[in-house]
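Re: that chain you flagged

S.,

Sorry for the slow reply, it's been a week of failed gels. I finally had a moment to sit down with the sequence you sent. For the record, here it is as I used it:
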Amino acid sequence: MSTWKETPFFNQQERAALLWTETLTLVATTHAPDDIYEEVAAAFNDQELAELTFVIATINAWNRFGVGFAMQPE
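Prediction finished late last night. Pasting the structure tokens below so you have them in one place:
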């Protein structure tokens, strides 16, 4: 979904979720800056942000297992 920033199809909360996903997925490069956290936190309550972060981390972990073990989709 590399073009999410250019399309008008996502609302503010969806855009915040995509920004947080991109930021945490690329954390080695982005380092999750405070300004991005503040923007994302403004779109979600504490519980929602925690759940979103957990889902992002879980999917990233699954992807790393898949890459690490050279898994192929069935």
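What I noticed first: The radius of gyration is 14 Å.

Talk soon,
D.
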